[in-house]
């Protein structure tokens, strides 16, 4: 799809500046703590849309068996060039190379915001497939309405596609995919506002 292809090309151009800008995790650290309270040490965690791998590294430092996947090889490489040594692989979140029930938890922080709206149910279904029963799923998306192209990305000409969500539009999709929401919040954060959800596979 055009939205995915052009956004992937944008991340190829901005990978280095993105990594330099987002190395300080800010509000995301709060969300990581909430996630780890529900995900014990040694759990198998998949960081979907891991980018440079900063969150994957934090999870591994805290004794979770975290692995990252991202559609952009350049984003993962930007982390390696900055000393982020985590296992990661290039993959499409709607078609993950992972066996059913092989994962204890999925962390999808700001990784669904570029996915065209019709594809979100497919991504949720794929996360549900790879999670064990009772497995934990965290996601954060842009809070708002509609969708838009952002022509400038980190002061570079690199168009990215964004989709915005409200609780009343995304929560039913989680339920339809087989998730039960246990917690949720909104925060301003960097580049916010954001909508976060914690759920489990029932």
Written description of the protein model:
This protein has 202 residues and is of the alpha/beta class. It has a single domain (2-201), classed as Rossmann fold. Helices cover 35% and strands 34% of the residues. The chain has 6 helices and 9 strands; from the N terminus they run ααβαβαββαβββαββ. The chain has helices spanning 2-22, 28-38, 54-61, 73-80, 120-130, 167-177, and strands spanning 44-48, 65-70, 88-90, 103-109, 131-143, 147-153, 156-165, 179-187, 194-201. Strands 1, 2, 3, 4, 5, 6, 7, 8 and 9 form a 9-stranded mixed beta sheet that branches. The longest helix has 21 residues, at 2-22. The radius of gyration is 16 Å and the shape is globular. The model has no long low-confidence stretch (mean pLDDT 93).
Order of helices and strands: HHEHEHEEHEEEHEE
Q: According to CATH, what is the topology?
A: Rossmann fold
Number of strands: 9
Structural class: alpha/beta
Proportion in β-strands = 25-35%
List descriptors:
single chain; 202 residues; alpha/beta; Rossmann fold; nine-stranded mixed β-sheet; 6 helices; 35% helix
Ordered list of secondary-structure elements with their pairings:
Layout: H1 2-22, H2 28-38, E1 44-48, H3 54-61, E2 65-70, H4 73-80, E3 88-90, E4 103-109, H5 120-130, E5 131-143, E6 147-153, E7 156-165, H6 167-177, E8 179-187, E9 194-201
Parallel strand pairs: 1-2, 1-4, 2-3, 4-5, 5-7
Antiparallel strand pairs: 5-9, 6-7, 8-9
Helix pairs in contact: 1-4, 5-6
């Amino acid at each position: 799809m055009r939205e995915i292809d052009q956004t992937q090309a944008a991340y190829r151009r901005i990978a280095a500046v993105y990594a330099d800008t987002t190395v300080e995790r800010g509000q995301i650290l709060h969300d990581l703590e909430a996630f780890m309270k529900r995900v014990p040490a040694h759990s198998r965690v998949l960081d979907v849309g891991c980018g440079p791998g900063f969150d994957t590294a934090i999870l591994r430092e805290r004794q979770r068996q975290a692995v990252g996947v991202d559609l952009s090889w350049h984003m993962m490489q930007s982390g390696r060039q900055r000393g982020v040594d985590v296992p990661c692989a290039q993959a499409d979140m709607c078609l993950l190379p992972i066996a059913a029930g092989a994962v204890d938890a999925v962390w999808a922080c700001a990784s669904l915001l570029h996915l065209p709206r019709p594809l979100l149910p497919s991504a949720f279904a794929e996360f549900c497939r790879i999670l064990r029963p009772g497995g934990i799923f965290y996601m954060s998306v842009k809070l708002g309405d509609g969708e838009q192209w952002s022509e400038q990305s980190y002061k570079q000409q690199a168009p990215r596609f964004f989709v915005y969500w409200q609780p009343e539009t995304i929560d039913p999709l989680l339920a339809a995919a087989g998730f039960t929401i246990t917690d949720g919040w909104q925060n301003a954060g960097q580049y916010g506002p954001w909508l976060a959800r914690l759920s489990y596979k029932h």
